[in-house]
Amino acid sequence: MTHVTAGPRLGIRANLGQFSLLVAVNALVGGVLGQERTVLPLLAEQTFHLSGYTFLLTYVLAFGATKAAANYFAGTWSDRFGRKPVLLAGWLVAIPIPLMLIWAPSWDWIVAANVLLGINQGLTWSTTVIMKIDLAGPGRRGLAMGLNEAAGYLAVAFTAVTTGYLAAHYGLRPAPFLLGVAYVALALGLSGLMVRETREHARLEAARHTSRNDGMDHNPHAELTNRQVFVQTSFREPALSAASQAGMVNNLNDGLAWGLFPILFAAAGLSVARIGVLAAVYPAVWGLSQLVTGPLSDRFGRKPFITAGMLVQAIALALVGSADTFALWMVAAALLGVGTAMVYPTLLAAIGDVAHPAWRARAVGVYRLWRDGGFAIGAVLAGVIADLWGLRSAVWVVAGLTAVSGLVVALRMYETHSRTNCPPTTRTRKEGPGTRARQAVPSVRP
Question: By residue range, what is the domain housing residue 284?
Fold first, then answer.
């Protein structure tokens, strides 16, 4: 008789129920974000009569700054207290957000709601990322991140187009934000009653982990300090630091798309419904394409997708800055979605490839600190440039920065993931500039 030892197992298939539940929870995270995507820039102009793009973008700045900080603490707290308590805390913070958006008597309330939104998104999205990496193990991180990010951004797209429809037919408030009330209530129930802790899965992977030969984790049981993790992820480790800057620039241009694209489209005479469609196309293509790009990065490697994706985004932004018709903007939005899909799940998978399981959650938090700090930087940069030289100038400047970021990845980042021609029992990281050869890491397939 065969005895099966109870305990955590690694792999998507082995954890399909919990993994699928976390995909659904992250879709609700995206939905809470998507309730603002179409309506809030229009609310700023039409209800609060704001003048000046910099002031209008204060809500993106508030969101980006607080989300960046929340990402960092989500990583450290997940290691200290567990993943599930951090996830629940993020959903508790979300309760007042849609109500504040509905009843806000002044723009200050909108900014305050976006501070809470940043905390909610940082804690919940970061934690679902960490939990899926825990469950998936090393073999299918690209697929895991593709599914996670696809769920989140498809929900952003669905909610953006739905709120645009509701706003066109029932007004800017309260109808579009009632979706947010439903999302938060459902997410709280699922997270509290059905989601299970995954920290033991990370510990299992750490126990099986083979040390790297570059001095970073020569003792897999030794804990790096938070400062050491920050320095390695931000500056010292070539792949981690290249990923961090690329993530920051990616969200810099996403902040531009969120805050200024609807104003650009409205200035060209597009209706609210058409603006809603354009606001939805970009995250919809982004979300769907990640179902392809994430798994393909498991097969062909991370670096080609990240480099090419940043350059595709730059081309798309240049097209937005030069176009003046709905059809061309549709093409540009779809192209921007494809480029972002090539980058987004692949960057997260690369962090998971390099960071040791003992400090991986903190590395994810540091990466997401830089990445979502891009929202705040983008809000200030795009707002100032738009005020001084116009909307299209802001788009062109961000397009140039995105192209430079892609070149930085091409020059600095080494390949972090093995190709399929490696033996199925081992994975080796390809040696690159500034790195020494790494020992084989056992593969745990789902």
Answer: 14-201+226-434
Write the pLDDT tens digit of every residue in 331-385: 999 999 999 999 989 998 999 889 888 888 899 889 989 988 888 888 788 888 9
Q: What is the pLDDT of residue 261?
A: 87
Which DSSP state fits 343? H
Contact yes or no for 409/181 (Cβ under 8 A) = no
CB 369 within 8 A of CB 68: yes
Query: Does the residue 442 lie in any domain?
Result: no
pLDDT band, residue 56 (cuts 50/70/90): low
Q: What is the pTM of this model?
A: 0.76
Look over the chain and give the mean of its residue pLDDT values, rounded to a whole number.
84
CB atoms inside a 10 Å sphere around CB 38: 31
d(CA 134, CA 128): 10
Evaluate whether residue 388 is within a structural domain.
yes
- d(Cα 148, Cα 82) in Å, to the nearest integer? 20
CATH of the domain at 263: 1.20.1250.20
Helices (H), 1-38: 16-37
Alpha-carbon span 191 to 262, nearest angstrom: 33
Tell me the two tokens of residue 344: 């987004």
pLDDT at 5: 47
Structural domain contains residue 211: no
pLDDT for residue 444: 32
pLDDT of residue 235: 94
Copy the structure tokens of residue 25: 């929870």
Mean pLDDT value across residues 98-120: 94
Cα dist from 411 to 239, 312, 345, whole Å: 10, 17, 20
**Tens of pLDDT along 257-268?**
877 888 889 888
Domains: count for the chain: 1
Residue 38: CB partners within 8 Å, gap ≥ 6?
A: 160, 161, 163, 164, 167, 176, 262, 272, 275, 276, 279, 280
65 Cβ partners below 8 Å, 6+ apart? 118, 373, 375, 376
Distance in angstroms (rounded) separating the CA atoms of residues 59 and 116: 11
Residue 215 lies in a domain: no
Tokens of 362: 């903190």
d(C-alpha 129, C-alpha 53), whole Å: 33
Q: Which of 422, 148, 97, 166 is nearest to 293 (CA)?
A: 148
Reduce the DSSP state of residue 442 to 3 states and report it: strand
Number of alpha carbons in the 13 Å side-chain half-sphere of residue 304: 11
